[in-house]
């Protein structure tokens, strides 16, 4: 049976168990630590938003292969699921080119300049690829057109950043108490977890 957390939030009964940190949780944590905690610990399933549905459409294997081809990648693999037992992390890379060591994360709703949270997710993918001996050299965020809008080098700085991101995310989601976070009201208004948030900021 679920335990009662802060202000009636239902916490998953295994919240104290060590868990794998997904690249998506890291992305959520960089956007809002509370959002990552809610995604990892609360029971209700959230209905997909229009942007989430658009993202799913752009992540079919056929669509990812098209993006890879138009980007000129010669040996692309798509939807590559990876894990690191050393760092307790998992993630599914959209595209990785085995010839050039290029990682591509496709964002359907990407802007001209991606949010830091998307770069954080990309850094974790880079670490996972390195841990699985895929020899990444560069990582990039692309739109479905496709158009590269951001890049990260697969260097020691990026890998260490990814390790730190995983550690911070794990500390947050394994806490029995949600982090106290204050966000701009505009940011909270369209949050998919606003109805289960213990600190609503919608007034």
From TrEMBL:
<dbReference type="GO" id="GO:0051536">
    <property type="term" value="F:iron-sulfur cluster binding"/>
</dbReference>
<keyword id="KW-0540">Nuclease</keyword>
<dbReference type="GO" id="GO:0046872">
    <property type="term" value="F:metal ion binding"/>
</dbReference>
<dbReference type="GO" id="GO:0004527">
    <property type="term" value="F:exonuclease activity"/>
</dbReference>
<feature type="domain" description="PD-(D/E)XK endonuclease-like">
    <location>
        <begin position="50"/>
        <end position="198"/>
    </location>
</feature>
<comment type="similarity">
    <text>Belongs to the CRISPR-associated exonuclease Cas4 family.</text>
</comment>
<keyword id="KW-0464">Manganese</keyword>
<protein>
    <recommendedName>
        <fullName>CRISPR-associated exonuclease Cas4</fullName>
        <ecNumber>3.1.12.1</ecNumber>
    </recommendedName>
</protein>
<dbReference type="GO" id="GO:0051607">
    <property type="term" value="P:defense response to virus"/>
</dbReference>
<dbReference type="InterPro" id="IPR038726">
    <property type="entry name" value="PDDEXK_AddAB-type"/>
</dbReference>
<keyword id="KW-0269">Exonuclease</keyword>
<keyword id="KW-0051">Antiviral defense</keyword>
<dbReference type="InterPro" id="IPR011604">
    <property type="entry name" value="PDDEXK-like_dom_sf"/>
</dbReference>
<comment type="function">
    <text>CRISPR (clustered regularly interspaced short palindromic repeat) is an adaptive immune system that provides protection against mobile genetic elements (viruses, transposable elements and conjugative plasmids). CRISPR clusters contain sequences complementary to antecedent mobile elements and target invading nucleic acids. CRISPR clusters are transcribed and processed into CRISPR RNA (crRNA).</text>
</comment>
<dbReference type="InterPro" id="IPR013343">
    <property type="entry name" value="CRISPR-assoc_prot_Cas4"/>
</dbReference>
<keyword id="KW-0479">Metal-binding</keyword>
<keyword id="KW-0378">Hydrolase</keyword>
<dbReference type="Pfam" id="PF12705">
    <property type="entry name" value="PDDEXK_1"/>
</dbReference>
<keyword id="KW-0411">Iron-sulfur</keyword>
<keyword id="KW-0408">Iron</keyword>
